User: What shape does this take?
Amino acid sequence: MKGLSSIIIIDDDPLIRLIVSKKLQAMGLDTYEAASGEEGLRLFDEIKADAVLLDVMMPSGMDGYTTCSALRNRTNGEHLPILMMTGLEDVESINQAYEAGATDFITKPLNTTLLGHRVRYLLKGSQVTQQLLQSKQRLHQMAYYDELTELPNRLFFLEYLQRMIAQAERQKTKMGVLFIDLDGFKRINDTLGHHVGDQVLRVIGERLYKSIRANDALARSASERDDVSLARLGGDEFTLLLTALDRNESAMTVAERIRVNLAQPIVLGEHELVTTTSIGIAIYPDDGETAEDLLKHADLAMYYAKRTGGDMYRYFSWKMTEIALRRLVLENHLRKAIERGELELYYQPQLDIVHGKFNGLEALLRWRNSELGSVSPAEFIPLAEDTGLIISIGEWVLREACAQIQNWRSRGFPLDRIAVNVSAVQFLHRGFSGVVERILNETGLEPEVLELELTESALVSDVDYVMNVLTQLKKIGVQLAIDDFGTGYSSLSRLKSFPIDRLKVDQTFVRNLEQSTNDSAIASAIIAMAGSMDMKVTAEGVESDFQLDFLKKKYCDEAQGYLLSKPLAALEFEQFLMKSNAIASADG
Ligand code: C2E
Ligand code: MG
Ligand code: MG
Assistant: This one.
């Protein structure tokens, strides 16, 4: 027993108090004295006592029994060891003492040696109780809180939301559920490691906490009362409950503040990270009347915010559920698309403008399902990226494309380049360059023939990691192109340092060459810039002779578009090549 335990002695007899005090102090305990039940209670509220010694017979004010029950009802009083001191030895008084909640009793006149043992025993018992309580608290903590951020977890949030729904229903008030998700968190985790990812989540948790603490007259966060309205659901997903919303629009004030706060750069050692946030908002009772529905719908709205570019908030609308249903159906079918042989590559010829020959092509993925019909890559590629299916699909595309061009080349078709689209998710996935190398080995294709079309979004994350992968790919010997160039946000200076062989001018600039002087200026600038940086340029979406002439005059290297040919199935492509080569040789 350490000298840390403190005991309150409640007795109207000053001499008894003195004797008991001295004895306990000699045992290394701190003692506090009270001359009445009332004083004892006041003292107990003031100091955190570990045990109480209580006289039964106190002539003025509360007697020991009443004081004992009062102590039991105090906060922290439930498990407090209370030792009753009584001169009455009859069964009746002893029963009464236990009924009032005494832990033990000792008779007067006091035997101080016995008293010492009793107190020691009492405190030991209470330590065991304390340990039990603490481990109970730990269990509670583990079940209801997120260890990383120390915020409540999904279970807690759902239970809390349920309770608040019941209250809002009675009081006829509105509430808002915010579903908060970081944009591109997976990329941080994948490129900088989980350790950095965890730190980012901790910072985000703190910022969210602070964002909702700032008082908001419009939409008060329930956290101002009890701090549980904010939770981490898992991963990079957080939720916030706004109670007593005056109008649906009030939720966006909070959402906007969170969006802005979370967009501030996070500095972690040598890294400065910028993450944006997508937020979905669902309103009770308009968007759902159960905790599950509200959460699901806020999640769905968040998904839409993310899909439309991220860094924004979106309110839930019932239309979203229809679209989500379609996604679910698509996803289920897409999972089986490879094994069922539903994927096919189409090939779009690329014209070498200077020599007037087709010796390159781009492989474009097609998906035909017996139930859904043809699904556009614009619809299923993003889905494949979200679900991670793009990894296996992308690998299938690479293998198929390499095998196909190898087949054509071995049969004498004059083709020296096949371009394959690589999604950012695929490119940033660990082991990508290894996959490329393996497929080249398997198919026996010369590496220079394969051109990987990367998007700018793949290149804007962690520079070191990206550079590393690009270098590995160049070492293997493949060509690298940037697709849809001009629409992204890659900085030129950064681009310069990357080993890129080709830029593909985005369709939007080519489309408006005739009408927009602005777009033709951009297209010209990209072509000139690529030239000065020793890169080739391909213009995509060429649909008219005017556009082709323009590109020719600007010394653009290659053109691809409906004017020349749509993407074709393998057999059609062969026929196209034979025809166009025949024309070319007839011309020459
Ligand atoms: P992208 O890589 O920029 O491909 C060019 C898209 O423009 C193709 O659409 C093509 O059919 C279309 N296109 C070609 N010429 C013209 C034209 O003159 N006018 C117009 N309006 N469009 C033209 P598609 O095949 O629907 O593919 C759409 C996008 O889906 C692709 O854009 C690419 O980002 C993605 N994608 C396609 N196949 C794959 C793939 O195997 N892997 C990955 N990761 N993405 C793919
Ligand atoms: Mg492409
Ligand atoms: Mg493109």
Summary: Residues 343-583 form a domain with the TIM Barrel fold (CATH 3.20.20.450). Residues 112-144 form the longest helix (33 residues). The chain has 23 helices and 21 strands.
